[in-house]
Amino acid sequence: MSLGERTVLLPEELRKDFPLLQRTVRGGRDLVYLDSGATSQKPLRVLDAERAFYERHNAAPHRGAHLLAEEATSEYEAARATIASFIGAVPGEIVFTKNTTEGINLVAYAMSNAATAGPESERFTVGPGDEIVVTEMEHHANLVPWQELCRRTGATLRWFGITDDGRLDLAELDSIINERTRLVALTHQSNVLGTVPPIDLIGARARAVGALVLLDAAQSVPHQPVDVTRLDVDFLAFSGHKMLGPTGIGVLWGRRELLEAMPPFLTGGSMIEVVRMEGTTFMPPPQRFEAGVPMTAQAIGLAAACDYLSEVGMDRVHAHEEALVAHSLERLGEIPGVRVIGPLSTDARGGAVSFTVEDIHPHDVGQVLDELGIAVRVGHHCAWPICRRFGIPATTRATFYLYNTLADVDALADGVRQAQKFFGTH
Amino acid sequence: MQLEAMYQEVILDHYRNPRNKGLREPYGGEAHHVNPTCGDEVTLRVRLEGEGQDARVADVSYDAMGCSISQASASVMSELIIGSSVKEAMAVGDAFLALMQSRGQSEPDEDVLEDAVAFAGVSQYPARIKCALLAWMAWKDATARALGEAS
User: Fold this and answer.
1) pLDDT tens-digit series, residues A27-52
2) N or C of chain A: less Cβ packing under 10 Å?
3) φ, ψ for residue B21, nearest 5 deg
């Protein structure tokens, strides 16, 4: 470990903020949690914020005129403002969803609803002859909704492949994104490979042909500074639970003029302007996209998570994880039979490290690690096409967050060697 | 360490030296099963001699990709059921399913399950039960097809 690595690491004391990290597993072992890419652990402050709302202010926001309803509305909208400022947005552009998956589906269904929604929605309509562009490294959440949109509308799905070193293959950039392209949906950071694609390059090409750009930011917003005013994109979706917040809350950010022209996805209470038996008009965004009593306590919990992350500093979170990734690439790289699937340097790369261990199935690697108290993800990580691309059934994946340490990485590497010893492969 | 309880020597042996592996002709029914959570796959063929529940399981052949538990389970299963009647093999399958759902609380009948008792430890790990059952489910499906009960 170099001095540089040591200086960028966050203090280990912050682990004390996370009650779950104090528990032991599998016969009294310390927990080594390397699955934050699936979901992160929560600091006490987030749990307290949710509890305080339920204990003091609980009511349904945006309805009712009693004191509690006023307080709940005010807390809910204050949470929206905090979360907006965390990504450089204005509150009116923040739509609360259940998670990233719902945010992406919201746009995909709004696009198919656009066909029957009136002239202001025309720019969202797609049909035969139109193309939607994705990449081979998408999480299923940013692939299946677009496959389904194409199936419903007759549009064509196209995609960028992956190079052997785990980067997007952009050799055909100008032909894959062309004048028929209506929307480009891509990951801001691969949940399997860790790859951060060149969004500026792809976004500029999309702009040149008049296509919309949607970013799956589920793995970027939690781990690096993200400022929507610096990203030339139209939509960005992320989940609260991957960034120290509660489950059940996510965000779809969209450019104001686009949200205003977009028809709703889910309809019902809260999102209406005037309802008659003959028909209904809708609220402006973001309310237009938030049908039903919202996840109020979860929004407040997520705002507390944003405050926590802001106080630590997202640039420091990013630097911390980069040091952990560098250390894990080094430690795993020196184990015979281990193959890292994804970029082998920390350039344009986030904190997901996927690997295979020769002659040991990832399920079996994961089982040995679990026995040692090390929680990793095994399988295809909801991105099955990546495994097909690399000709492997699955991978073992370690993902890091601000509470992980170099010792966690060392435990992982030692655990992989133990698996090899147990199965007699090396 | 609990690992030895799960990875019994019998399991590791079947994993390293799978019996009856490879797809063979002729066959009367074939099924392809996938474990969507991990991507494990098995394609399994059944050849029956005779009709109905008394038909004899003449051959079980398979091609599988997956973890040690799913691979070993396919191998152990093929050894257990080739040569028995469909009715007997289904009873063994039911006993194996019961063992897998026992959370380690049941005492498996070695007379019925033979080598498959080695999977008792797996039942304590909910995430791995499907691995052990994958080939058995494919076998049930392929047999139903061979009997002409389902398509």
Assistant:
1) 999 999 999 999 999 999 999 999 99
2) N
3) -75, 155
Query: For residue A18, what are the domain limits?
Result: 3-30+314-423
In this predicted complex, what is the ipTM? 0.89
Domain assignment present for residue B151? The answer is: no
Q: Do B67 and A361 touch (CB under 8 A)?
A: yes
- Indicate the pLDDT class of residue B151, thresholds 50, 70 and 90: very low
- Min Cα–Cα distance to chain B from A229, Å: 37
Chains A, B: CB contacts under 8 A, how many? 48
CATH of the domain at A337: 3.90.1150.10
A214 touches chain B (CB under 8 A): no
> How many angstroms separate the CA of residue A321 from the nearest CA in chain B?
27
By the 8 A CB rule, do A214 and A235 touch?
yes
Nearest to A379 among B1, B2, B38 (CB): B38
User: CB–CB of A363 and B125 under 8 A?
Assistant: no
Question: Does residue A150 carry a catalytic annotation?
Answer: no
CATH of the domain at B40: 3.90.1010.10
| Structure confidence by residue, pLDDT tens digits, B13-58 | 999 999 999 999 999 999 999 988 777 899 999 999 999 999 999 9
User: Domain span at residue B66?
Assistant: 3-146
Q: Is B148 helix (H, G, I), strand (E, B) or coil?
A: coil
How near does any CA of chain B get to the CA of A35, in Å? 16
State yes or no: pLDDT of B1 exceeds 60: no
- CB–CB of B12 and A423 under 8 A? yes
